[in-house]
Amino acid sequence: MLAYEFMRTAFLAAFLAALVCGPVGWFLVLRGQSFASHALSHVGFAGAAAALLLGQPALLGLGLGAVGGGVAIGMAGDRLVGRDVTIGLVLSVAMGIGALCLHFLTHSASSATALLFGDILGIGPSMLVWLGALSVACLLGLAIVARPLLFASLQPEQAEARGVNLRLLDILFLVIVAVATAQCAQITGVLLVFTLMIAPAAASLRMGFAPLQGMGIATLLALLEGWLGLVLAWYTNCPTTFWIAILGGSVFTTATLFCRLRGR
């Protein structure tokens, strides 16, 4: 399996994505913003489809669309809490715009499938370099805001009283989430970002680890999903994203059962 360059590249891409999905997803679940990765991936899909229509790289459009959506959600703040209908309509409109762009994108039908469901086996060396750069940028940004972000996530009133700008912090974090979503979408596609970014983090938090341990466990679980998904896809001839989704659900279910048994 590892004798093929495209498989080695796929394993490296999954490794880079897991490095980011673990800690970013951990903060998302902790802050109750799990919907953000799903929402930003849908908004980014419209940007990616528009970029392909204009002859630009899909990653560029996906990143710009997701970052723009992250800034908008961060600026809206609490005004979006509980407005499921509004959020659902915005996501539907974004997917509709993406579908319109793909309708006119007649020269590359495979691009639609790659955007929606990912194409980890089609990642080339140049894309791998970009994924590495995005990983470094996300981790550096998260390292800068991690302490105030953890404080604001656990004790928002006290953090605000001590001078922490919650709105600015939320915007900065959602920009990091947007970049991580653009990276993760190269592996799972925009429809299955949730499985790689949220499932490992939710399982880690469910088991009650401390912050640094929890982020480390979430990263390891995301890496396990990506690498084991590639191995299973190789031997079963099923899509990698299918196995990543199945493994994500299995990891969270196992963690939930473990916690219930431990509680008893």
Low-confidence stretches: none
Q: For the record, what is the CATH homologous superfamily label of the domain at 12-191?
A: ABC transporter involved in vitamin B12 uptake, BtuC
Any idea what the CATH architecture of the domain at 12-191 is?
Orthogonal Bundle
**CATH class division of the domain at 12-191:** Mainly Alpha
Average pLDDT metric: 84
CATH topology grouping of the domain at 12-191: ABC transporter involved in vitamin B12 uptake, BtuC
| End-to-end distance | 43 Å
Cα shape: globular
| Share of residues in helices | over 70%
Number of helices: 12
Major beta sheet, specifics? none
Rg computed from alpha carbons, rounded to a whole number of angstroms: 18 Å
Protein name: High-affinity zinc uptake system membrane protein ZnuB
Organism: Acetobacter pomorum
Pfam families: ABC-3 (PF00950)
Keywords: Cell membrane, Ion transport, Membrane, Transmembrane, Transmembrane helix, Transport, Zinc, Zinc transport
How would you characterize this protein structure?
The chain is an all-alpha fold. The protein has a domain at 12-191: Orthogonal Bundle (ABC transporter involved in vitamin B12 uptake, BtuC), CATH 1.10.3470. The protein has 12 helices and no strands. It has helices at 5-30, 34-53, 58-76, 84-104, 110-117, 125-154, 156-161, 166-188, 193-197, 199-206, 211-236, 240-263. It is globular, with a radius of gyration of 18 Å. The termini are far apart.
